[in-house]
Specification:
Layout lengths: L10 E6 L2 E5 L10 E4 L5 E4 L5 H15 L4 E5 L5 H4 L10 E5 H9 L10 E2 L14 E3 L2 E5 L4 E5 L12 E4 L4 E9 L11 H12 L5 E6 L3 E2 H28 L3 H6 L14 H14 L5 H12 L3 E2 L3
Helix pairs in contact: 4-5, 5-7, 7-8
Bound molecules: zinc ion.
Length: 311
């Protein structure tokens, strides 16, 4: 029997009546948040986890909280494996929902079949296999439970990825932001758009949520949201300044990152993401062809070895 109380396996944190956030400290590489919305017509899950072990801990906690495992829907906020590899452990009767680009991206994913040695230790996903959404959408859809309404909405542009979705609960005032927000963890836009990710901050603010659950890091209360959004803006502006200077000087992302003092941003976990984010920014603004392989190779060079993950 899996011990769901290991502190590094996260916990179900109540955020509103019949709504919980699954928060996994410390929110660094591959350690994500998820969510649970209880409804008498069948519960709704927001995201799964990267590994068999972590997803099993989540599902055990859901079953313990609800007295059964009755998941009518699961929403994937984006394609990344920390939010989707556990899909295959959901009941066969659960309908998985994602943006059409998210489904296409997960379909093309090869990392689930064997993680490249970019992280240390190399993550072991366990007994998971690729399970794609069977219900996709282009701009938004609404899930109507018996007691709950959940609006699943794409921002309309690439941000963290090109297939992001938020889950918004208008009655509860809870917004599951996926990786459009990293609370106290370095944001990542390498497979999305820095300009879109910055624009998405105003979009998130426009919901005036009482509680926001980020994709990584602790739950954000309404009175903390401005500060968290400002921190993201400051970081994105910093990447823009460094990226613009690099384009002007004709230097690449790795050199630009090495010559940059991260200042306060150095304290966030996964600070080496500066290299990945600069790869994206310089490709988008400097007319350089983007290569995810080169981006990660440079991140390892900057980090002087594989990236740290405790997944
Ligand atoms: Zn992500």
């Amino acid at each position: 029997m899996m011990d769901t109380h290991r502190p590094d396996h996260g916990c179900l944190q109540p955020v509103a009546d019949h709504v919980w956030a699954w928060i996994q400290p410390d929110g660094s590489w591959w350690i994500n948040n998820a969510g649970l919305i209880g409804d008498p017509a069948g519960d709704i899950l927001v995201d799964t986890c990267a590994t068999e072990q972590r997803t099993t801990a989540l599902l055990n906690a859901v079953a313990a909280q609800r007295g059964r495992l009755d998941l009518r829907y699961a929403v994937n906020t984006h394609l990344h494996g920390d939010h989707t590899y556990g899909n295959s452990l959901l009941p066969q009767t659960t309908t998985i929902i994602g943006h059409e680009n998210m489904r296409r991206g997960l379909d093309a994913d090869t990392v689930i079949n064997g993680c490249p040695p970019l992280w240390t230790p190399v993550p072991d996903w366990g007994a998971v296999s690729k399970r794609l959404p069977t219900l996709t959408f282009r701009s938004s859809l609404t899930l109507h439970g018996r007691a709950t309404t959940v609006e699943v909405v794409h921002p309309g542009y690439a941000a963290h990825t090109d297939g992001d979705a938020i889950a918004w609960l208008p009655q509860a005032g809870v917004l599951f932001a996926g990786d459009l927000l990293f609370h106290g963890v370095t944001p990542l836009v390498v497979t999305g758009s820095l300009d879109g990710a910055r624009r998405a901050l105003d979009w998130i603010a426009s919901y005036h949520a009482d509680t926001v659950v980020p994709g990584h890091g602790p739950v954000i209360a309404a009175d903390e949201l401005d500060r968290v959004l400002s921190a993201h803006r400051d970081y994105y502006d910093f990447v823009c300044r460094v990226g613009d200077a690099a384009v002007l000087a004709g230097v690449g992302p790795l050199t630009a990152a090495r010559e940059t003092n991260l200042g306060d941003f150095a304290h966030w976990p996964d600070s080496e993401r500066i290299v990945l984010n600069l790869h994206r920014y310089i490709a988008d603004h400097g007319g350089v062809r983007f290569s995810v392989r080169n981006a990660y190779a440079d991140a390892l060079a900057y980090n002087k070895g594989p990236l740290t993950s405790s997944v």
